[in-house]
Amino acid sequence: MFLALSSAAVGCAGGETGGNGGTPLTSAELSDAVLSGKHSGFEALPQNGPLLEDVDVVTAADPVCQPVADLRSVTPKHEATGTAWASLGAGDGAGGGGSVVLTSYPEGGAKAWMSELRAAVSTCRDFVASSERGWKDRGTLKVSPTDGIGDESLGFSTVSAEDPGKGQAMTIVRTDGSLAVYLTSSEGEPIPAALMKTQHERLREARK
């Protein structure tokens, strides 16, 4: 699962605090903040299982692309201090539509990763990555707009080199020292901006 993909960076590059007076939000606090129930035509179902396993170590063939590969790696450069996630089902059914992953970082971490992702997506077009699990992916990155959601946001999609008809769409939204990463297939329903703004506000409330 990609934790983040394709990028058009917009929004205000505001200051960053981890939450709770500068302390990064914990997994429990992120679990309280993650969306649940119906939002903008999607059904959010919080998940308790681990997002990644020890063998999910992902390496990009080109080091320039590594910040993007880190979005699906268990060993990213910027290690999260807290994590929570939910599946996002389009329409009446839950699941299968996509996902939202919340992560928190020590002061400066979330903003630094956003900056590195922005640079990577602007230069990494032929994305090739492999995992210790045994898979290898190759695709083309394409920037997409994000409507200025959150303190800053990135949007991009990937098109599979093996099957140009398939791909993934990703939006990453920073709220202070936390990131919300939204993933759907490029053929599925896009995640509405209203849903992402609601998640942004819930993360804002979590730091009070």
Mean pLDDT: 84
Instruction: Note the total helix count.
Output: 4
The counted number of beta strands is 10
In quaternary terms, these chains amount to single chain
| Terminal-residue CA separation | 31 Å
**Amount of beta strand:** 25-35%
**Sheet with the most strands?**
10 strands, antiparallel
Unreliable spans are: 1-15
Radius of gyration: 16 Å
Summarize the helix and strand pattern as letters. Answer: HEEEHEEHEEEEEH
Give the helix/strand class: alpha+beta
User: Helix proportion of residues, in percent?
Assistant: 10-25%
Q: Numbering strands along the chain, what is their spatial order in the largest sheet? A: 1-2-4-5-10-9-8-7-6-3
Task: Describe the fold and architecture.
With 208 residues, the chain is an alpha+beta fold. 19% of the residues lie in helices and 33% in strands. The chain has helices at 27-33, 66-69, 109-123, 193-206, and strands spanning 37-39, 42-47, 58-60, 82-90, 98-104, 126-131, 136-143, 152-160, 167-175, 178-185. The protein has a ten-stranded antiparallel beta sheet with strand order 1-2-4-5-10-9-8-7-6-3, sandwiched between helices. A hairpin with a 7-residue loop joins strand 4 (82-90) and strand 5 (98-104). The protein is globular and about 45 Å long. The two termini are 31 Å apart.
